[in-house]
Amino acid sequence: MSQLKRVRGFQDIYGSDAKKYRYVVDKARQIFEIYNFEEIILPYVEDVSLFIRSVGEETDIVQKEMYVFEDRGGRKVALRPEGTASAVRAYIEEKLYAKGGYHKLFYEGAMFRYERPQAGRYRQFHQIGAEIFGVDTPVADAELIKMVKDILDNLKIQVRLEINSLGDFDSRKIYIEKLKAFLKKREKFLCSDCRKRIERNPLRVLDCKNEECRKATEDAPIILDFISEESTERFEKLKGYLSGYGINYIVNPRLVRGLDYYTDTVFEFITDKIGAQGTVAAGGRYDTLVKQLGGPDTPALGFAAGIERLMLLMEELPEGKPVVVVIPLITEFNLEALITADKLRNSGIKTELILKEGSLKSKMKLANRMGGSFVVFISEKPELKDMKTGEQEIFENIDDLIDILKEKAVY
Question: Where are the domains of the chain?
Answer without folding.
Answer: 15-168+227-313, 323-409
